[in-house]
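If you are new to this repository, start here. Below is one unmodified record pulled from the training split, so you can see the exact layout before writing a loader.
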Amino acid sequence: MMLGLRSRGKADTAVLDAQRGESYPYPYPTGWYRIASADSIRPGEIRAITCLGKQFVLWRARESGEIHLMDAFCPHLGANLAGGRVDGDCIECPFHLWQFDGEGRAQRIPYSDHPPERVLTRPYELEDVHGQLFLYHRSDAESGDPEEPPAYEVPRIAEVDDGSFVRRGQRNAGRLRMHIIEICENAADTAHFQALHSQLHLPWTQVRVPGVEIVHRAKWVLDEDRPWMMHFDDVVTLRALGRRLPGGETKVRVSYHGPGSLLTFHFELPGWGELTMVKTFLPISPLEQQIDFQWYAPKSMPRWLVWWVIGNWVSQFPQDIDIWENKTFQARPKLSRDDGPVIAMRRWYQQFLPEPDDTRPGNA
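And here is the target side for that same chain:
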């Protein structure tokens, strides 16, 4: 059960979100974003997608089976292509029945033998990694070079590529009223872990396990070789009645690939091996994120162990949600000497934003 402070009326929430939204940096930073899973799109299906300040249509050709993403609005007279249909390997506009191929070219106009030859509607290249479709979004799309290659690639999991790991589960965590920078601040704010995440819960629930404490030894580090990456390292032990429980330490490295849109969790389990979880954030609007999880492990790893590890981590998520959905962004936070490296993280984060605008509070 996902818990949150959701007792406010709609009017109160709208006022709060308006105040919150004004405090944050630009909401759609440069990076890779998961749009959908490839196997969820059927041949002939059209899906309307609103995210990253834009409207898209995602569709799959009936004959070739190729998946395409393009601007939602027909370049002819502006109808939404999501209301059309797929005919063969083209998407058809519901208004005048113009048909476009996956490259955005008009292939057929029912009342004319002279369709324009140039590309009319913009297609977007998708990267399929382990069955997940990713879009590279540029925060400076209006002024930047659209032909410039992405600053980094979508990470692949080597163990999935060589067959030693298989996908063991996935979870749609729904949408949260939060800004995407919060997931990055969460890693640098190491002081919050004992405050919010010291209580063990039954996996996948908010049912507390009495008397059992989670002890975190957390730190935040930048990647020396890949400037678009940062890491959160945590060593987790359990204590009951002040004594450490047997079973050893669980080591977790959370790697942030870009501005918080794509995280990989690498778990080292003493005596059992390793497993990996991928967590993605997609900004639907400035204060709304779609959250998804996938996890991978050896075929031989017991089902109960995968359930326990992933479920315990996910059960800590609601404590963050209660904070994220009701906070503002402090552009000039008053930090103590023992707070985590929040300011260093924010300096790192600037690489994903448009050129600073001094009128925006979050860029101060």
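Two things worth knowing about this chain: Residues 136 and 149 are 10 Å apart (CA to CA). The domain at 158-363 is CATH 3.90.380.10 (Naphthalene 1,2-dioxygenase Alpha Subunit; Chain A, domain 1).
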